[in-house]
Design goal:
- There is one protein chain.
- The chain is mainly beta.
- The chain contains one helix and five strands, in the order αβββββ.
- The mean pLDDT is 93.
- It comes from Chitinivorax tropicus.
- InterPro entries: Trm112-like.
Length: 59
């Protein structure tokens, strides 16, 4: 994941910062508890594609 791209990407819902999880290939929004997938190196920043993080999963 390109560091410059990570600097400008924000959560499409709350416009908050995202955390890159390399092992899961996801961008995490801590505020909304959503994980946006990265497919073939491209972040999929659609709410309907995001995975809701369970309460017990640490972000």
């Amino acid at each position: 994941m390109d560091a410059k791209l990570l600097e400008i990407l924000v959560c499409p819902i709350c416009k908050g910062p995202l955390v890159y999880k390399k092992t899961e290939q996801e961008l995490i929004c801590k505020a909304d508890r959503l994980a946006f997938p990265i497919k073939d190196g491209i972040p999929v920043m659609l709410e309907e594609e995001a995975r809701q993080l369970p309460a017990e999963e640490e972000v």
